[in-house]
Amino acid sequence: MPQTIREDTIIGDVHYAWRVKEYEQHARGNRWYAVSILAGLALIIYGIITGNFIFSLIIILFAIILFLQAHQHAPDVQFAVTELGIVIGSKFYTYSEFDVFYIIYAPPRVKTLFLDTKSIFRPILRVPLLDLNPVDIRHSLREFLPEDLEKEDEPIADAWVRNWKIH
To answer: What is the C-alpha separation between 156 and 163, in angstroms, rounded?
Structure first.
């Protein structure tokens, strides 16, 4: 479980640090909004016709969340690789909280560091590498965590969310 960083928290020497957006923001055009509204209305009507009102309610809540997120600025979060763990914002994760890491680097589409956690509630942490050298990050992390070399593509859910500009 991550601990909140305070003045007395020992995180060790910082190997790499950069700032990332808390979540990815997409530029959505009018066509995206039109298709989303039509699909949402169709699903709501389907839920009402079939008597599945909870399904319709879930679609409405999903639309509200997308609307609110589209009109909100993603805050910057500090990310750091240290000799004792990982810093994300005001939280410190020790390396014992992670199983493995892997980097998917296929610019310009994907440049992401993935950290598989041992937690069932937050199984994967995703960190954009921006313009950092992935080889340097990989060498630094290999000192502390095993690398999963079998992963060659980003998770399907991540690709789907990025392509459909949902998150």
So the answer is: 10
